[in-house]
């Protein structure tokens, strides 16, 4: 077998979402040839599937700098930096124009799903000469044709959106979950738009305690105001929803703070029923509805609903990477060096420092998880973080070690991490200090050099993460 010189091969980027296209832009600026593989029919296919949802981050944090430099000569006009785009607007006003540029378009293949990645000429067990081997990326197109692509390096920015966590307990599907798939909507249905008829005047169970759940719940509340026959049940595994209610007006992403405030008000007003300590054991699908069996703090759980919204979070598809030597944390399935910074058991507070190629590297050199997939099962990823990840990776692949190691982000601090603020809303006189400190009035630039281990970024939730739930037992 003839081994192809790695340096002569392109860098394969898996996924043409915001981070994948940003990776291509940074590689091009470094003189490195990228090839972007996208399973969907166009750029940002996953984002487009929840196009009705508005982002928390304004445009100033949603556009990558290298991507903007490619777009500007085309006459592209940057959106209002303070406006909050919907998913559809992010695609239409940014990702689609970027994908159509003369730099990106010939290097983008859509309808191309990556099903496996391996070192070319060596399985996972081969060590001798492994560092000389490039990568073999196996793809399947919309016609089922299998094509292997050789790559110098691989940046997997395919995200996690298509891989929801199951509804059942212990990370396992509930009995009958597969059979009940027709009643499960996905994490972000278009309640007030295309999917309205599915929910209006009907009974819906929303499972989950993240921002996806909050968006759907508030849309259902709005729908119920127009059609009072609409009923809403919200099920969470924890003992309290205070982590999602968050820091309210102290959150420097105001849309995120408002989301928690509005949802808290809806619960208190009785516009939806909140069940805590829920475990779903079984689903029994019928002709028009599905029976949900299990337990909750109130006792046995036995519901009949027309739809279940599985806003249960996501997990990475690691099966496609079985032949790659990875160094992943056993808890969150993120790169081992990154995991302590984002583990939701510990870090819904503090900060997520800027991080780059060294943190993201794996035993197989030249392979990287970037974007949402780099966070594994942790839920608190932001686009600006992914843009800095791929900028650093591109620098490392170009041999610019100093550029790769100097990572920086300009982000606002946020009060959403403060459990004190959440408690204050329930307990008059409670302390008002935040473990993250007071929020600055303007974004702060963060620079982490070689060997630096901490820095200011977006805080990620409530103090002590899930461990704080023990107070609600």
Can you walk me through this structure?
- By secondary structure, the chain is an alpha/beta fold.
- Helix content is 24%, strand content 18%.
- It contains 13 helices and 17 strands.
- It has helices spanning 18-29, 45-49, 65-71, 87-99, 196-199, 211-226, 242-245, 254-268, 339-342, 357-360, 383-397, 401-405, 419-426, and strands at residues 11-14, 34-37, 108-109, 112-119, 135-141, 146-151, 153-156, 203-207, 231-235, 273-275, 279-285, 290-296, 299-305, 307-310, 367-369, 407-411, 444-448.
- It has a five-stranded parallel β-sheet, with helices on one face.
- Strand 1, helix 1 and strand 2 form a beta-alpha-beta unit.
- The protein is globular and about 65 Å long.
Secondary-structure topology with pairs:
Layout: E1 11-14, H1 18-29, E2 34-37, H2 45-49, H3 65-71, H4 87-99, E3 108-109, E4 112-119, E5 135-141, E6 146-151, E7 153-156, H5 196-199, E8 203-207, H6 211-226, E9 231-235, H7 242-245, H8 254-268, E10 273-275, E11 279-285, E12 290-296, E13 299-305, E14 307-310, H9 339-342, H10 357-360, E15 367-369, H11 383-397, H12 401-405, E16 407-411, H13 419-426, E17 444-448
């Amino acid at each position: 077998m003839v081994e192809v010189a790695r340096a002569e091969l392109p860098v394969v980027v898996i996924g043409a979402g915001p981070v994948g296209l940003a990776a291509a832009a940074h590689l091009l600026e470094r003189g490195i040839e990228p090839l972007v593989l996208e399973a969907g029919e166009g750029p940002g296919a996953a984002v487009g599937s929840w196009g009705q949802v508005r982002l928390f981050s304004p445009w100033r944090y949603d556009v990558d700098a290298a991507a903007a430099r490619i777009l500007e000569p085309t006459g592209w006009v940057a959106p209002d930096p303070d406006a909050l785009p919907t998913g559809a607007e992010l695609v239409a006003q940014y990702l689609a124009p970027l994908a159509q540029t003369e730099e990106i378009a010939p290097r983008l293949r859509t309808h191309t799903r990556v099903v496996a990645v391996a070192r070319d000429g060596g399985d996972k067990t081969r060590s001798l000469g492994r560092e000389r081997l490039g990568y073999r990326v196996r793809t399947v197109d919309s016609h089922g044709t299998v094509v292997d692509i050789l790559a110098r390096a691989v940046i997997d920015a395919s995200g996690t959106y298509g891989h929801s966590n199951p509804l059942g307990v212990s990370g396992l599907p509930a009995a009958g979950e597969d059979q009940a798939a027709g009643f499960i909507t996905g994490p972000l249905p278009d309640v007030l738009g295309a999917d309205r008829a599915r929910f209006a005047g009907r009974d819906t169970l929303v499972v989950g305690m993240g921002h996806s759940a909050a968006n759907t719940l508030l849309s259902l509340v709005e729908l119920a105001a127009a059609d009072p026959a609409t009923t809403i049940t919200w099920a969470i595994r924890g003992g309290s929803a205070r982590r999602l209610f968050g820091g309210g007006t102290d959150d420097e992403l105001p849309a995120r703070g408002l989301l928690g405030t509005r949802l808290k008000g809806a619960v208190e007003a009785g516009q939806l029923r909140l069940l805590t300590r829920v475990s779903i054991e079984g689903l029994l699908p019928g002709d028009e509805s599905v029976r949900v069996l299990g337990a909750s703090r109130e006792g046995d759980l036995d519901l009949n609903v027309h739809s279940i919204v599985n806003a249960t979070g996501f997990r990475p598809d690691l099966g496609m990477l079985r032949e790659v030597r990875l160094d992943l944390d056993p808890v969150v399935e993120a790169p081992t060096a990154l995991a302590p910074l984002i583990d939701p058991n510990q870090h819904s507070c503090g900060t997520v420092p800027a991080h780059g190629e060294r943190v993201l590297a794996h035993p197989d050199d030249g392979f990287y998880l970037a974007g949402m997939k780099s966070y594994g099962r942790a839920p608190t990823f932001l686009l600006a973080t992914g843009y800095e990840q791929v900028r650093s990776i591109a620098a490392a692949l170009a041999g610019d070690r100093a550029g790769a190691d100097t990572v920086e982000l300009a982000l606002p601090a946020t009060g959403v991490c403060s459990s004190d603020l959440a408690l204050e809303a329930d307990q008059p006189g409670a302390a008002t200090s935040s473990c993250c400190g007071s929020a600055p009035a303007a974004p702060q630039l963060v620079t982490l050099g070689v060997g630096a281990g901490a820095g200011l970024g977006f805080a990620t939730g409530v103090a002590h993460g899930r461990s704080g739930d023990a107070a609600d037992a």
